[in-house]
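[worker-b] picked up task from shared queue
[worker-b] task type: protein-ligand structure
[worker-b] ligand name resolved to pyridoxal-5'-phosphate; SMILES cross-checked against name lookup, match
[worker-b] sequence length check passed
[worker-b] input payload:
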Amino acid sequence: MDQQLQQEGYFGEFGGSFVPPELQEVLNYLSEQFYKFRDDPEFKEELRYYLSEYVGRENPLTYAERLTKAWGGPKIYLKREDLNHTGAHKINNAIGQILLAKRMGAKRIIAETGAGQHGVATATACAMFNMDCVIYMGAEDTRRQALNVFRMELLGATVVPVHSGQGRLKDAVDAALDDLVRNYTNTFYLLGSAVGPHPFPTMVKHFQAIISEESKRQIVEKEGRLPDAVIACAGGGSNAIGAFAHYIDEPTVRLIGVEPDQAPSLTQGVPSIIHGFKCLVLLDEEGQPKKTYSIAAGLDYPGIGPEHSHLKVTGRGEYATVTNEEVLEAFQELSRTEGIIPALESAHAVAYAKKLAPTMGQDQIIIINLSGRGDKDVEQVYQMLK
Ligand SMILES: *Cc1c(COP(=O)(O)O)cnc(C)c1O
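[worker-b] inference finished, payload out:
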């Protein structure tokens, strides 16, 4: 890819930055600082230190022996992001961006959150680094996710309910961007997924790429070769792009992203601009971003990261959907066979792996990225199964 275009954050026709001029200035500065510190040896060492001592990396690549036997096909390995502190991959990115914020002299971190998972990861990292933390959340979402609001407050964050618009995630994003433009001299906007205007998708990928950096080393140690497929669930696409990153230039490795069949941005989306960047978006009849619904709150987003959009249209990435029933079954099967209760988001990847396994041979290998643990979802699954 053209160096200049890559600098501006384009992945083919996708990505870029479509924002008002005053916000563009803030993003240009962020971009410059990110490229400056990304490869700085001291910054890298500090990041490595906190990922090891606080997050608990590296996490294992577990051979799922019983699941492999039950499905009768390829060897199944699980990349255990569920074992990270706070129970998911989001903390990798939160720590990385906070360290960058510190270097940039920010005293205050802001973030948006839908269901609350990114808000909790951000509030956690802010507590550890003694940063002021303001989380914008749609008023409607604060009611539905009262326990996560309390978690963030326990961690010392201020949660601001956003009443404008429909009081949902989109309105929280707008409120956070507004805050950033007013307070950029001391404030850093910590974005939670591989979406948004440049440099966010590139930055989030950089901090999540640790997933495949580790899994590639681990699978070569265990099996002496690369996997045949890597499977991850895709909401905004951060755990998936992190799980794919170090395999993108390995053409023998299939990269498969899995979406809910009720929010299939990649399988049914069209190129469009949403939240300041271009990607495949699900639109309704009026050409507006479609209202999506997923049983997994983290996958409930009508767009998808620009790099996934590019991997999809170039054919390097494959994208599939699974139904709620398949997800619920996978949630229970992994719990029963391996003693691991997965997040409902991660159960999407497990559900698709189960469908793919019979088409592959016993000498082949699948890595499933287990993006998070399922404790947060147990009550919801209980209600759904009842
Ligand atoms: C937030 C979340 C996701 C979805 O976000 P991505 O950016 O697509 O990774 C997936 N799994 C878990 C456990 C999450 O918390």
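[worker-b] attaching auto-annotations
[worker-b] The longest strand covers residues 132-138.
[worker-b] releasing lock
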